[in-house]
């Protein structure tokens, strides 16, 4: 008989020597390559059906059912204002499910992401010149220069982006959209479900 | 552990005792008024039912007595005879005998021989007189009759709907309780705070008690499987030994109901694809008889239901290739999946591992129904497999769920669910039934002016500014009917204008996860049967939003 | 898509047993009615592929219910459930459009055979 305790366990092998090598999942936003450390990515999938959710910022594409998890799908191109004018949102896209401490978030990308393994030493702290790209620099870990002039990968630090208030923040706004509960004449406190 | 036989027996008992009480009652009525057709019809029907049920349970004598009684009452109904003479005491005696037989079943005893009674009933049916001995009561028997205790069944059948309603009401109570707790703290009155604390504890207990009522043993479902496995194994020409475990693990009846089909699929799949036939097993050095184990166990707040086989295991690469071939996943995306990720592809729509569609597992649906069912419950699915050794499917299920009745409405081709708790009425209004007062559209509902607002405006108009002042000129000039759902919260009614009404349905509300849990207009989300996501509107929040934004 | 069946019987025990047999065999039992009134309402509300109908019900006879159902939906497929010795009613039911009848106490094989046959459009049978 097979082992009955289907233990969740670690799903991907950790990098052999974490100090030396880093594995990134790389995808395109606008005309640039972005990367997320593989251990922050739960899975890559074809974007499931997304249901638009009213009262959310435009870069929240909506919610989707990802293997039973109902997750928010975020368009990072729109969030970071990287989409060149006139380029439409693609009909077909991929979603990277990234894991925060207590929830999962879907990042929508237009092309299939690819894994890239490189020495950690290639990632350099972000230089000044990206400072003009909205608030993106706030969430950068650094920039990796690929050997043989294969370009650069902008490495995002998901932990910084994944606090709910940061995700919901509109570019150029300091507060996430307020909820109306405070103004209510007779607002019950939602109970904790036992 | 409660087997299906036991379940049948309990049902039979409860219903038979009910029949017995009703028979006694109607017999007395008939004795008072032999022309009472209603009593006669009921006696006929009750005898008929008791006969059929007793025969199905294999209680031959009971079935025979009821059968002859049915025939007798049929004759009376057909005016072939009257309810007089020796027939009267004999039928009373027969109903008593039936009562004794039913009680004997309940006590697990043999019932006394009914030969004489049956002979006498047959004589009556043939138009003969019964032999004396049977109709003469001894004093002892008469005393026993007079002193007979009244018995009520210990089981009460409660429609699940009533329990759902109870649970919803308790949910409401808990909301108000929390509010009172907050208010008590604000007011700062010690006595009030103590009372509020007490209320807190009691309503908590109440909520658990109500949820507890709906718990049943997992055996209710598990015990259905020996038959299923036998049939599938026979059809597939395989030898399977089934083991069941954890039948007494407690789980919400509605959860079981919702996963029945899913479990059926997994088990059928396990026998037809997981386990090999005897020859293949022997060739692989395994015993010819395949092992299948279905078990329920508790893990923290969840119930796990596992289906475990010692079959061929999942060929991960074959699944990966097939998923690509079937277009379930792209080759690039598939390359990124680890083993477990690939196994989960088995549950994607459009994937069916069997190359030949057998009658057993290929009923036109694949394992994707499993995922849909589990998703709709907020449960999870785990797969564990080792090539050549076997596969384990684990359903991780919540012990209890709140199923709510909801009305589905459509807006811009999207379904939204509104909990029935807050729906008041639905209206289809002509333009001339709508009037404008102070920038608000209104209509009359039961002597009350109810404001109307397009749901579209509440959901999609951004910003904190008041809604635009509405006039009747905004209404389309043609004859279109305006579909209005009147919701109520805190005795305040509000008419939401929607595109159309879809249907009423029971939903399981899943809370929205971060970062969207701050959007209070939505009480959560539910998965419709099709797997489609549907937002659940929060009527209190919608009402509040309307109040703050009304022009 | 599984075939959808409505069960009409005034005995909870009978309904449960019949329901178990049918669901085990892969049918969807979309409703259970305990009397004629419920049966007529549910026949409309649940649009079943097949109705199993007990011949003796508290408020109507099964025959009246059969006629009512056939009036609402002339194409409705109905299988009568009866006990031995009710051949007269059963014959009348067949004349009124019932497809077949099942004799109580039910044997699972018979039930499935008759239900399956009726769904496939066989003529009257027993």
TrEMBL record, chain A:
Q: Which PROSITE patterns match?
A: CHEW
Enumerate the residue ranges of region (Disordered).
Answer: 167-194
Q: Which InterPro entries match?
A: CheW, CheW-like_dom_sf, CheW-lke_dom
Q: Which SUPFAM superfamilies match?
A: CheW-like (SSF50341)
Residues annotated as domain CheW-like? 21-167
Q: Name one Pfam family in it.
A: CheW
Q: Which domain of life is it from?
A: Bacteria
The processes (GO biological process) annotated in the record are: chemotaxis; signal transduction
Gene Ontology cellular component annotations, sorted alphabetically? cytosol
Identify the PANTHER family for this entry: CHEMOTAXIS PROTEIN CHEW, CHEMOTAXIS SENSOR HISTIDINE KINASE-RELATED
What's the protein here called? Purine-binding chemotaxis protein CheW
* Organism, as annotated: Hymenobacter setariae
Classification from the root reads: Bacteria, Pseudomonadati, Bacteroidota, Cytophagia, Cytophagales
TrEMBL record, chain B:
**Which parts of the sequence carry Phosphohistidine?**
48
GO MF entries:
ATP binding; phosphorelay sensor kinase activity
HPt domain spans which residues?
A: 1-105
Which Gene Ontology cellular component terms are annotated? cytoplasm
UniProt enzyme class: transferase
Q: Which InterPro entries match?
A: Bact_Chemotaxis_CheA, CheA-like_dim, CheA-like_homodim_sf, CheW-like_dom_sf, CheW-lke_dom, HATPase_C_sf, HATPase_dom, His_kinase_dom
Catalysed reaction equations from the record: ATP + protein L-histidine = ADP + protein N-phospho-L-histidine
- Mind telling me which Pfam families this protein's record contains? CheW (PF01584), H-kinase_dim (PF02895), HATPase_c (PF02518), Hpt (PF01627)
Q: What keywords tag this UniProt record? A: ATP-binding, Chemotaxis, Kinase, Nucleotide-binding, Phosphoprotein, Transferase, Two-component regulatory system
Where do the CheW-like domain residues begin and end? 403-548
Q: Which PROSITE patterns match?
A: CHEW, HIS_KIN, HPT
Q: Which residues form the Histidine kinase domain?
A: 151-401
Gene3D superfamilies in the cross-refs: Histidine kinase CheA-like, homodimeric domain (1.10.287.560), Histidine kinase-like ATPase, C-terminal domain (3.30.565.10), HPT domain (1.20.120.160), SH3 Domains (2.30.30.40)
Q: From which domain of life does this come?
A: Bacteria
Q: What GO biological process, any one, is recorded here?
A: chemotaxis
Q: What is its EC number?
A: 2.7.13.3
What function does this protein fulfil? Answer: Involved in the transmission of sensory signals from the chemoreceptors to the flagellar motors. CheA is autophosphorylated; it can transfer its phosphate group to either CheB or CheY.
Under what name is this protein listed?
Chemotaxis protein CheA
Automatic annotation (TrEMBL), chain C:
Q: Which UniProt keywords apply?
A: Phosphoprotein, Two-component regulatory system
InterPro entries, per this entry?
Bact_response_regulator, CheY-like_superfamily, Sig_transdc_resp-reg_receiver
What the entry lists under Pfam families is as follows: Response_reg (PF00072)
Report the residues modified as 4-aspartylphosphate: 54
Q: Quote the SMART domains the UniProt record gives.
A: REC
Please report the stretch or stretches of sequence annotated as the Response regulatory domain.
Answer: 4-119
Q: Which GO annotations describe the biological process of this protein?
A: phosphorelay signal transduction system
Instruction: Tell me the Gene3D superfamilies matching this sequence.
Output: 3.40.50.2300
Q: What's the protein name?
A: Response regulator
What organism, scientifically named, is this protein from?
Answer: Hymenobacter setariae
């Amino acid at each position: 008989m097979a082992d009955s305790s289907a233990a969740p366990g670690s799903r991907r092998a950790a990098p052999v020597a974490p100090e030396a090598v880093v594995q990134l999942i790389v995808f395109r936003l606008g005309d640039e390559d972005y990367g997320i450390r593989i251990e922050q990515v739960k899975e890559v999938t074809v974007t499931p059906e997304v249901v638009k959710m009213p009262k959310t910022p435009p870069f929240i594409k909506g919610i989707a059912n990802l293997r039973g998890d109902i997750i928010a799908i975020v368009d990072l191109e729109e969030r970071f204002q990287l989409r060149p004018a006139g380029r439409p949102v693609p009909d077909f896209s991929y979603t990277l499910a990234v894991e925060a401490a207590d929830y999962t978030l879907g990042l929508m990308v237009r092309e299939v992401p690819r894994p890239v393994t490189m020495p950690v030493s290639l990632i350099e702290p972000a230089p000044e010149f990206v400072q003009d790209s909205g608030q993106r620099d706030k969430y950068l870990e650094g920039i990796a220069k690929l050997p043989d002039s294969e370009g650069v990968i902008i490495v995002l630090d998901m932990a910084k982006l994944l606090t709910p208030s940061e995700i919901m923040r509109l570019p150029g706004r300091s507060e996430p959209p307020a909820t109306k509960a405070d103004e209510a004449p007779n607002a019950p406190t939602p109970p904790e479900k036992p | 552990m409660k087997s299906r036989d036991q379940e049948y027996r309990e049902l039979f008992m409860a219903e038979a005792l009910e029949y017995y009480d009703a028979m006694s009652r109607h017999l007395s009525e008939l004795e008072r008024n032999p022309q009472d057709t209603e009593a006669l019809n009921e006696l006929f029907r009750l005898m008929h039912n008791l006969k059929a049920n007793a025969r199905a349970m294999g209680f031959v004598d009971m079935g025979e007595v009821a059968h002859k009684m049915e025939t007798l009452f049929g004759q009376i109904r057909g005016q072939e005879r009257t309810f007089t003479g020796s027939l009267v005491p004999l039928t009373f005696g027969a109903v008593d005998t039936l009562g004794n037989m039913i009680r004997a079943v309940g006590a697990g005893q043999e019932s006394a021989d009914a030969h004489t009674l049956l002979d006498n009933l047959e004589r009556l049916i043939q138009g003969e007189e019964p032999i004396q001995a049977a109709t003469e009561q001894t004093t002892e028997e008469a005393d026993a009759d007079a002193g007979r205790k009244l018995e009520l069944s210990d089981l009460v059948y409660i429609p699940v709907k009533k329990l759902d309603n109870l649970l919803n009401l308790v949910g409401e109570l808990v909301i108000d309780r929390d509010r009172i707790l907050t208010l008590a703290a604000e007011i700062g009155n010690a006595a009030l705070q103590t009372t509020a604390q007490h209320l807190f504890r009691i309503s908590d207990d109440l909520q658990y008690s109500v949820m507890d009522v709906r718990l049943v043993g997992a055996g209710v479902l598990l015990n259905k499987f020996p038959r299923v496995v036998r049939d599938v194994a026979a059809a597939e020409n395989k030898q399977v030994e089934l083991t069941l475990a954890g039948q007494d693990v407690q789980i919400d009846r509605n959860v079981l109901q919702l996963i029945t089909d899913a479990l059926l699929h997994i088990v059928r799949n396990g026998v037809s694809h997981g386990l090999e036939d005897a020859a293949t097993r022997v060739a692989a050095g395994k015993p010819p008889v395949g092992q299948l184990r279905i078990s329920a166990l508790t893990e923290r707040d969840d119930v796990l239901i596992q289906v475990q086989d010692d079959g061929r295991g999942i060929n991960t690469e074959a699944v990966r290739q097939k998923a690509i071939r079937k277009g379930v996943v792209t080759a690039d995306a598939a390359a990124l999946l680890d083993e477990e990720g690939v196994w989960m592809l088995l549950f994607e729509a459009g994937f069916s591992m069997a190359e030949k569609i057998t009658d057993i597992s290929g009923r036109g649906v694949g394992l994707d129904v499993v995922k849909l069912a589990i998703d709709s419950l907020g449960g999870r699915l785990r797969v564990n497999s080792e090539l050549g050794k076997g596969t384990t499917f684990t359903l991780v299920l919540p012990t209890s769920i709140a199923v709510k009745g909801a009305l589905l409405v459509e807006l811009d081709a999207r379904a939204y669910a509104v909990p029935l708790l807050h729906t008041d009425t639905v209206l289809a209004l002509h333009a001339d039934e709508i009037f404008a007062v102070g920038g608000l559209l209104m209509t009359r509902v039961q002597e009350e002016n109810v404001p109307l607002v397009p749901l579209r405006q509440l959901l999609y108009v951004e910003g904190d500014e008041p809604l635009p002042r509405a006039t009747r000129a905004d209404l389309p000039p043609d004859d279109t009917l305006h579909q209005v759902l009147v919701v109520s919260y805190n005795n305040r009614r509000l008419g939401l204008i929607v595109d159309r009404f879809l249907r009423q349905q029971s939903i399981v509300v899943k809370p929205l996860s971060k970062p969207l849990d701050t959007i209070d207009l939505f009480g959560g989300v539910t998965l419709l049967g099709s797997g489609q996501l549907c937002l659940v509107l929060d009527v209190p929040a919608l009402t509040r939003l309307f109040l703050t934004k009304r022009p | 898509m599984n075939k959808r069946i409505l069960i009409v019987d005034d005995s909870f025990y009978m309904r449960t047993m019949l329901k178990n047999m049918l669901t085990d065999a892969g049918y969807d039992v979309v409703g259970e009615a305990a009397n004629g009134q419920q049966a007529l309402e549910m026949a409309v509300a649940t649009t079943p592929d097949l109705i199993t109908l007990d011949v003796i019900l508290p408020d109507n006879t099964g025959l009246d219910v059969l006629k009512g159902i056939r009036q609402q939906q002339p194409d409705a497929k109905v299988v009568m459930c009866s006990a031995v010795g009710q051949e007269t009613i059963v014959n009348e039911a067949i004349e009124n459009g019932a497809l077949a009848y099942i004799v109580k106490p039910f044997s699972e094989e018979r039930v499935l055979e008759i239900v399956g046959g009726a769904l496939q459009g066989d003529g009257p049978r027993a």
